[in-house]
Amino acid sequence: MPVSDQERIAAQVRNPRIVRLWQALAPLKSCVSFMNTGAHPDDETSEMLAALALRDGIALSFACANRGEGGQNAIGSEVTHDLGVVRTAEMERAADVLNLNLYWLSETPDDTIFDFGFSKRGTETLEKWGRERTLKRFVEIIRTERPDIICPTFLDVPGQHGHHRAMTELAHDVMSAAADPAFPGVDLPVWQVKKLYLPAWSGAGDNYDDDLPPPSATLTVKGTGQDPVTGWSWAQIGEQSRAFHLTQGMGRWVPNGEERDWPLHLVRSEVDGPDKQITDGLPATLADLASFAGASEIADHLEMAQAACEAAFAAFPDMKEVARQAASALKAVRKARDACPRKAREEVQHRLAAKEIQLSHVMRIASGVDVRATLERDVLRPGDSVALAIESSGPVAEVAPVLPKGWRFTDGVVHVPVDSESTDCYPAFYRPGVARLPAIRVGVTVDGVSSETLLPLERAPVVLPARSATLAPDRALINAAAATRKIDLRVFELFPHGGKAGLETPPEWSATAVASGFLVEAPKDIATGLYDLSLQIDETPAETVKRIAYPHIGERARAFPAQLSVRVLDVDLPDVRVGYVGGGNDRVGHWLRALGLDVTELADSDLTEEGFKNIDTLVVGIFAMRARPALKNAMPLVHRWVENGGNLLTLYHRPWDDWDPETVPPRRLEIGKPSLRWRVTDENAQVTHLLPEHPLLNTPNRITDEDWKDWHKERGLYFAKSWDEAYEPLLSMADPDEAAHEGALLSARIGQGRHTHVALILHHQMEKLVPGAFRLMANLVARP
Questions:
Q1: 508 and 608: one domain?
Q2: Share in percent of the chain as helix, strand, coil (round to 5)
Q3: Distance, CA of 263 to CA of 761 (rounded, Å)
Q4: Pick from 200, 128, 202: which is nearest to 166 by CA?
Q5: DSSP symbols for 659-671
Q6: Spatial separation of the C-alpha atoms in residues 767 and 759, rounded to whole Å
Q7: For helices 131-145 and 162-177, what crossing angle results, to 10°?
Q8: What is the spatial distance between Cα 777 and Cα 780, in angstroms, rounded to a whole number?
Q9: What is d(CA 268, CA 196) in angstroms, rounded to the nearest whole number?
Q10: Count of domains in the chain?
Q11: Could you count the other beta carbons within 10 Å of the beta carbon of residue 6?
């Protein structure tokens, strides 16, 4: 839908022209480029990058391995690929703040370079990602962006996340591989990175615990000081960027005077001279570029361009003069580009191309050009036609839409071709200075010098598939121990409207069409296993669209095959009434109901003595102590309820999720940190039953080795570190070459009742339809 007046006003307040111009001028200070590397969205060193970009003018980029699909979600229930879509969008918005070119090693949701969960070893990570594939993609990125410097955020040391360690290991390798003309499979001109730095600080904290000290600092990037126009410190600007990583709870307030410096360790250099500043040995400005590249033929042009850039800075905030000097600089840059000798093009041309984009933005902003373009609808289908409204002000020479291949624009209407592909939810790169299509080309002419910039639409459109429908549910259970074999499959949002839907079923299954979709029925003697039922529309395979929208990222969508996955399992159920208190980050209540249990979702108003009379077992979802303050306030009442015979089951919490080890559990139970030390990341790790005859491992289902098979991502995390003697550890498990953990499943008799704390990621296993997770959960909710 079109952007509202209130949204436009808010955007205007956030981005005054004077600040936009000042920040657009910053890149004119330097010709040096710096690539930060990491494994996940939010791994970028935002505060240091803000200083490098907006104070020093250094061009920034970030090479990120994956989309963070294995992370946690602090704002919603999206997991795995859907979480990857959200975190991709968050990373793009964070990049906007820092003018950061963004590249992903992972190119599709099915890419092997996937956030498969926590890892402790880089070797394990690269085995799963595919070392050759990962290095090849990294080489493509380096040869495309051509950074002078690369610097990982983390160290390759024990105690760090294995994904971080893998990316740091590859930073060493890619420096050589990108410059090697014999490197196979990448048809791009070679590029020699000039310097490789490592962080000279520890990555230890709540999550990690570096075993080895950081290397000594060879230089330090100062992080102190304030932007002279906004008054914001560089750290504060960095946190303005990090605040877009809402799914990870990022963004912290840094008071003035509490900024930090950033020590770096030079590992390798391909340039001569001392290294006291990261720009030493590199073309710090346009005026230095000719001698650096051995191109005396263009020295005069580059010196003129540099002088004009400096004059543009000096003229600020005189908009007219800034525009004139930027135009003069652009004219000189183009002359240098055209006259550049072949021998110097490798070092010169990409830097001048970046300067042309930067100067064009300065000319547009300084000239007072303001352009807004909006489609009447921003969710489109192949074959759609939609009006495009363009509002412009200032001395605009040209305003015209630039469309993807096959799209047309006639008489104010954009036409989407019938064979248009869906919008890519995992785009391979993002460049804030060059808008993604469809976009608006804006031409500006100053003193006879013309420039163009490519600006995004006010709201980027999302193109959905030609045939799609939403299935509810898209995952279901059939418990062979129960009588029912039927699934009410609702099919809605069918497109094209009037299309004929059909469902492919396994042999002996039936799918009866009803008004809402299909009544699916499995045979009575159905074998346990996983069954996939695919939807077709007009006899063509259909897709499901998961639309995701949050205010900080706008709307995104992921399209994937439309199918119902049915897990048939055999689980005996206890006769209990379950109350579930969720924090909005799992669907445990849903899955317990799907299993066949009597489950009530408890509101805050139900957390009373009267409310607890109606339940036998209280299940507390992940992070619920933080997300549901009323629950934490009710814990004294919960403790009395347990003493009187209630069964309390708490799912994993982080230490900072308002989990007070003395007051939240009925008896003291401390969660370990840093989290790397208190988790088992190997999803196939051997699980030992410490008390094989304990009721929770036997009633009503006997838990065996079969129940620990086919787990996904990891065994568990945020294990308990220490506990009151009332608790009994029921399980033992370990990652390779590590001591065993016993804090994954603890249970204690409390008066007439029981408290069980489980740090296994059962909620995730249930989403993945892992049978053992359901069998264990049925036992955990049974009466004490």
A1: no
A2: 30, 25, 45
A3: 37
A4: 128
A5: --TTTSSSS-EEE
A6: 16
A7: 60
A8: 5
A9: 5
A10: 5
A11: 8
Residue 121 lies in a domain: yes
pLDDT greater than 90 at residue 159: no
Q: Are 124 and 680 in contact (CB under 8 A)?
A: no
Find how far residue 429's CA is from the centre of its chain. Answer: 14
For 27, 96, 682, the CA distances from 60, given in Å and listed in that order, are: 10, 11, 35
Helix axis angle, 345-366 to 286-293, nearest 10°: 170
| Mean pLDDT value across residues 350-372 | 97
Tokens of 185: 């499979």
607 and 699 belong to one structural domain: yes
- Is the N-terminal amide bond of 700 cis, ω within 30° of 0? yes
> Which of these three, 539, 568, 597, is where a domain ends?
568
Task: Extract the tokens encoding 16.
Answer: 């005054």
The whole-angstrom separation of Cα 203 and Cα 221 is 17
Residue span of the structural domain in which 226 resides: 32-281
The Cα angle at residue 699 between residues 693 and 703, in degrees rounded to 5? 65
CB-based contact 142:190 (threshold 8 Å): no
Judge whether 49 and 238 are in contact, CB under 8 Å: yes
Which of 734-750 are b and which e, b meaning 16 or more Cβ less than 10 Å from the residue's Cβ?
bbeeeeebbbbbbbbeb
Rounded distance between C-alpha atoms, residue 615 and residue 555, angstroms? 40
**706 and 585 share a domain?**
yes
Residue found under tokens 């799609």: 468
**Residue 321: which of 363, 293, 351, 349 has the closest Cα?**
363
Calpha distance 168→174 (Å, rounded): 10
Q: Round to whole Å and give the CA distance between 784 and 767.
A: 26
Average pLDDT over residues 723-743: 96
Single-letter amino acid, residue 331: K
Reported as a single tens digit per residue, the pLDDT across 742-759 is 999 999 999 999 999 999
Q: What is the mean pLDDT of residues 563-592?
A: 95
User: What whole-number distance in Å separates Cα of residue 386 and Cα of residue 376?
Assistant: 6
Same domain, 304 and 399: no
Assigned token pair, 716: 């568990």
Could you tell me the CATH number of the domain that includes residue 99?
A: 3.40.50.10320
* Burial class, 263, CB count within 10 angstroms (exposed 0-12 / middle 13-18 / buried 19+): middle
- Same domain, yes or no, for 277 and 287? no
DSSP label at residue 646:
-
Query: Strand 486-495 vs strand 468-472: parallel, antiparallel, or unpaired?
Result: antiparallel
Find the mean pLDDT for residues 299-327: 98
pLDDT in tens, 183-230: 999 999 999 999 999 999 988 777 777 778 999 999 999 999 999 999
Per DSSP bridges, beta strands 439-446 and 429-430 are unpaired
d(CA 262, CA 218): 11
Under 8 Å between Cβ of 509 and 520: yes
Cis peptide before 438 (omega within 30 of 0): yes
The whole-number average pLDDT for the span 49-62 is 98
Q: Residue 81: how many CA atoms within 13 Å on its side-chain side?
A: 17
Domain of 491, CATH number, reads 2.60.40
Nearest to 665 by CA among 602, 757, 745: 757
Same domain, 376 and 503: no
Q: CB of 169 within 8 A of CB of 155?
A: no
Instruction: Report pTM.
Output: 0.87
Residue 4, domain member (yes or no): no
One domain, residues 184 and 248: yes
The answer to whether residues 595 and 694 belong to one domain is: yes
Decide if 230 is inside a domain.
yes
Q: Where among 544, 568, 592 does a domain terminate?
A: 568
CATH code of the domain containing 771: 3.40.50.880
Cβ atoms of 467 and 500 closer than 8 Å = no
Let me know: does 429 contact 61? Beta carbons within 8 Å: no
**Distance (Å, rounded) from C-alpha 54 to C-alpha 233?**
11
In a domain, 318, yes or no: yes
- Reduced to 3 states (helix: H, G, I; strand: E, B; else coil), residue 408 is strand
Residues 6+ apart with CB under 8 A from 630: 604, 607
